[in-house]
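> run fold Phospholipid/glycerol acyltransferase domain-containing protein
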Amino acid sequence: MEKYSKWRDPGTGIQPFLPIVPPRTVSPIFVALLGPFSVLHAAARTVLLGVLALLHVILVDGICLIFITIPPIYRLASSAFTALTCRLALGIMGYWWITTDVYSPKRGKNGVSQISQISPRKGDLIITNWTSYVDVLYLAFRHNPTFLLPIFSSSTPTTSQSKTGRHTGTGSASIALSSSSFQPDLIGYQPISLISLLGRTGTLPPTYDGPPATRYYKTLKDARRKEGRPIVLFPEGTTSNGRAILKFAEGVLDGSDFTGGEEGLVWIKYFRHTAPTAFAPSATCPLPTPFNHLIFSLLYTPTPIPSRSLHVRTLHPSASPSSPSFLPSEILNNAPGGLDGVAKDPKAVWREAIGIVLAETGRVRRTRGLGWVEKAGFLDYWGKRR
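> ok
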């Protein structure tokens, strides 16, 4: 769409913030005839999801608190109840079967088969892309982790002189463009509860005037050492439409988070949703409207038993950032333009290398110039155009 051409990545031509529009291959008359059935199905499944959400709160945030003084029992009960409610929620949404596989850049099956049964545990870090609340539900179902979001300072300095789209050749004459994007300083990482994170789908990372009053960690090392569960980090800081990996936020995944001999594995996971169809809109949710997206994209379907698919790809731990053989400089040297991202910021070596292996795991490209800061401008423009 030409009016959103400012948010088209110049290197890949991808617009990662726009919702994916399903093909219009079905007659509007046929869709209208199925409308009443779609409303009934959506209403019934919405009620079921509401009951599940209430059940989750009662079991996990209520009954499990009885055992909070006995951490092993508390973690076991919390994980069991979370797995039950999240898997049922995924089933109601149409995810009857979720496929997984382990990717290894090293050819051969021996290494993969030896470690395929290992799961993330306390002290481990899971780094993944973020496209939908479905991703969050799956991670909660399989690992019951602590979710972390990067948090930033809300201070904004003056920006350089701006140009309009006409001057930049984008054809969007009414859009003001700044010659450079500024990202606020990283404060740390804030734990987010499951319910809160589902509601934050599509939003921007939290910002504060100073250190927040709520609990947060200055480094990933602190979080991995103090949390009693695996850690999940979304380095993009916000959701995309899944067509590319967004530029990681500056300051995230600093090299100091991966050096010093700390225990635990680093897992790289990528979520891929199937392309939308006329009867199944895209499950990705790049806009901050998760409830509307859930009702009108995932639940509003003409079939009473919808079926959706999700594929989760995991990088083999022998090639992950926790492996002794993981050499960021080598990865950057082998990737086209890999050294460009660290020319001005040597601390970004690990961040860029992890971004490369995440994209390779998902077999997608990266947007070098579009991250959560640019998405803030997109959401502002999107809201004015609605």
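Residues 99-105+121-385 form one domain.
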